[in-house]
Amino acid sequence: MGTITASDLGDETEAELRRDLAAAFRISARLGLNSGIGNHFSLMLPGDELYLLNPRGMLFQELTASNLIVVDYDGKVVRGEGVVRPVAFHIHAPIHKARADARCVLHLHPPHTTALSLIDNGRLALAHHNNLIVNDRVAYDDAMTGPAGGLEEGYRLAEALGDKTVMVMANHGILSVGPTVHDALHELLVVEQTCQYQLMAMWTGHQLRKQPDNLRWNYRGVWSDKLEGRFLLDAWRRVLDREEPDYRT
User: Which domains does the chain have, with CATH numbers?
Assistant: First the structure.
């Protein structure tokens, strides 16, 4: 297992993929979306055999482009220093295998989406403008199976996700997939904020005001073909370049 240094991030394509993913970890930490050293993000490298993953035991705010490890479909670290958290391998490898378009897989326990997952039959209402696009893209896994103790749970999650891009995981958190980091991350952030709006409105005790179904976007394609995921990640990277430039190294 060879060490990856700040001066050895692979070719420029791999280096930029690493920087995008490292930025996603830092953004999530800043927004308070992750759980300590838990939670995990993965990103396929060019080809279909290897993916980047955060090594076990590191806080999101510590992660840099160079300390992301390269893992194969057997869960073996083929480049980088660190070990794979088993639950991360059990979830991410099957989903990457099942969905060719899921180049990036993000799993978090953000407060508001997780709170929704704790409510019996917790669902996104058609209340906020965001719901007009996200509701048709969200799957709900209502099975309570406990932590992913083996690959069979990852395959079950992949089946529950189906062809959707986001999944609210009962009593657990959220999963988001996309062809790029910016697609998966922006959609996850929109869902989390929409859950926050909904829960805040529900706390008033008043009934939610539902929008008409004919306003739905009925869009299931690539997120950034309609919304500004790349612009958002670039904006965050400019902030990180000023305030946490080590993420790039």
Answer: 12-248 (3.40.225.10)
